[in-house]
Amino acid sequence: MKKNLISIITILIIAGCTAAHKTDSAKNDRELEDLASLMTGKFSSELQSKADSTYFNISLVMTPIWAERKDGKWLYVEQAVAANAGKPYRQRVYHLQHPSKDTFTSEIYTIKDPLVFAGLQNDKMKKDKLTFDLIELKDGCTVTLKKQGDTYLGGTDADKCPSDLRGAKYATTKIILKKGMLESWDQGFDASGKQVWGAAKRGYIFMKQ
């Protein structure tokens, strides 16, 4: 009986240490910190829009939230036409994690009543009001990034991200990220695989401001 009790206590101690190690690893992950730093800030596609009129001048802002959480990095993300920056057309929460060497994931969450949080990056009260119960995971839309040198490349998994925008059946995202630049290519496809929305030539090129 005593041996069994000692075994159980030992297992619990090991499990506790393992969990603590995982938590500490996520909290002190330098590579994850580097990725979050590259993504954080204000970006603009103005240069691309001036060079090619088929692209709009889009403002993209990514702001750290929930710094107290120990399960990765969390960002509030807002996109708007630059001329109408106060009324974003897309608001999301990204959950960044580092599951294996040189591999990173970004889970995508929608926000309930998103316009209530427009401009959150400049409003501490709105940041405080955005709580975990107000977001919902977009199943199948996780972005996986592979680090190659100083560049992160990746995107969503084939046709797994559902979309009903403009007759689409699914959406894809392709990402190229490096210091000072993010290229994001979002496209929607119908059931036959025909593109029904999104840029046709390449992704939007956002330069960090």
UniProtKB/TrEMBL annotation:
Keywords: Lyase, Signal. CDD domains: CpcT. Residues 1-22 form the signal peptide. InterPro entries: CpcT/CpeT, CpcT/CpeT_sf. Pfam families: CpeT. GO terms for molecular function: lyase activity. It comes from the Bacteria. Belongs to the CpcT/CpeT biliprotein lyase family. This is CpeT/CpcT family protein DUF1001.
